[in-house]
């Protein structure tokens, strides 16, 4: 038989209280990083190439701002369920950030190999004097 989820056990209540306290101290940094990401995305959008990728930092900033708002909602409504929403926003933020890092590393590796090969071939054919 399943128990009704009315009152958390003492250990769970302590963990929830610690989670609430820790997340409450995160709100300032989440807001700051969220605003910085949105501003950065706006500045990136000013360039011709940047307009293609400007939505990524804006999206990441919005996710951080939403996570911060979930923490605030949890504090004022005393609803620990909002912390699950915060964790979902942060999970998505880290997934996107991880994919961006993997793609950036792959592009950097391709650029190093390409330019390395070009440089090696240029040196084999006589260096800069041939140009």
Percent of residues in helical segments?
over 70%
Mean pLDDT reading: 88
| Low-pLDDT runs | none
Shape: elongated
Rg, Å, rounded: 24 Å
Strand content: under 5%
Structural class of the secondary elements?
mainly alpha
Q: What is the number of helical segments per DSSP (H or I, 4+ residues)?
A: 4
Tally the beta strands.
0
User: Major beta sheet, specifics?
Assistant: none
Distance between the termini: 82 Å
**H-E order:** HHHH
Give keywords.
4 helices; 131 residues; mainly alpha; 0% strand; single chain
Characterise the protein shown here.
81% of the residues lie in helices and 0% in strands. It starts with 9 loop residues before the first helix and ends in a 7-residue tail after the last helix. The longest helix is centred in the C-terminal third of the chain and has 44 residues, at 81-124. The protein is elongated, with a radius of gyration of 24 Å. By secondary structure, it is mostly helical. The mean pLDDT is 88. The protein has helices at residues 10-44, 50-53, 55-77, 81-124. The chain has a domain at 10-93.
């Amino acid at each position: 038989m399943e128990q009704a989820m009315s009152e958390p056990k003492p250990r769970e209540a302590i963990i929830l209280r610690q989670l609430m306290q820790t997340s409450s101290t995160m709100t300032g940094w989440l807001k700051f990083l969220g605003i910085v990401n949105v501003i950065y995305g706006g500045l990136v959008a000013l360039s011709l190439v940047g307009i293609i990728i400007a939505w990524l930092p804006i999206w990441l900033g919005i996710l951080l701002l939403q996570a911060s708002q979930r923490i605030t909602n949890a504090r004022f409504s005393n609803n620990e369920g909002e912390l699950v929403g915060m964790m979902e926003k942060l999970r998505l933020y880290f997934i996107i950030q991880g994919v961006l890092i993997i793609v950036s590393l792959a592009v950097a590796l391709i650029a190093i190999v390409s330019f390395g090969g070009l440089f090696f071939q240029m040196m084999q054919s006589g260096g800069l004097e041939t140009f």
